[in-house]
Amino acid sequence: MTEEQNIPTEETPTAATGANVTDTNGAAASTGAGELVALQERVAQLEREAAEYKDQWLRAAADYKNFKRRTEQERADLIRGASAGLVLKLLPVVDDLERAMGSATAEIQGSPWYNGFKLIPQKLQTVLESEGVTPIQALGQEFDPNFHEAVIYEAAGDGQGGKVVGELQKGYMLRERVLRPTMVKVGQG
């Protein structure tokens, strides 16, 4: 045998083998296309889930922000309520101090003791004002049931009808809220 005879010859693909190659490529292509469609569906599903999670996260963040704002508002309201309760308890003390100052005789008013005592209601008023407590101005004003409590009606001169002509007990406000209305005499006429 010669060497040429020992060399295997390359076989050329036959038509049948070529068909098999084409079928194999077609099957691979159809399998690849099926996988691609499945992957695209999976990506679309994951995108929907991601959008849903993002929406839930945004809602939770908004809920938290609202909760935080509401909690801060409730806390501020609680502090204001506690302040109002304390101030309401202090107002009779302020009234008593003012009555004591008003009942002092001329002899007592000149003493150093009286001058020192006079500072107490002034300091107390300053503290109350720093907390937002202000007296309600009533004398000479039109009667307003939101701020005044009419205790006495009396005959009044010209132009005094419906106006406050006397103040029996001072009223106070805490910021925009009436703590205690002013007890007043209202003119009729």
Explain the overall architecture:
The chain has 189 residues and is α+β, with helices and mostly antiparallel strands. Helices cover 61% and strands 16% of the residues. The protein has helices at residues 3-6, 15-102, 106-109, 112-130, and strands spanning 133-135, 148-155, 164-169, 172-174, 177-180, 182-188. The strands form 2 sheets. Strands 1-4-5 form a 3-stranded antiparallel sheet. The chain has a 3-stranded mixed sheet with strand order 2-6-3, with no helix packed on it. It starts with a helix and ends with a strand.
Question: Can you summarize this structure?
Answer:
This protein has 189 residues and is α+β, with helices and mostly antiparallel strands.
What attributes characterize this protein structure?
alpha+beta; 189 residues
Strand order of the largest sheet: 1-4-5
Fraction of helical residues: 55-70%
User: Sheet with the most strands?
Assistant: 3 strands, antiparallel
User: Which parts are unreliable, with pLDDT below 50 for 5 consecutive residues or more?
Assistant: 10-22
Order of helices and strands: HHHHEEEEEE
Shape: elongated
Determine the mean pLDDT: 84
Content of β-strand: 15-25%
Would you report the number of β strands? 6
Helix and strand arrangement:
Layout: H1 3-6, H2 15-102, H3 106-109, H4 112-130, E1 133-135, E2 148-155, E3 164-169, E4 172-174, E5 177-180, E6 182-188
Parallel strand pairs: 2-6
Antiparallel strand pairs: 1-4, 3-6, 4-5
Helix pairs in contact: 2-4
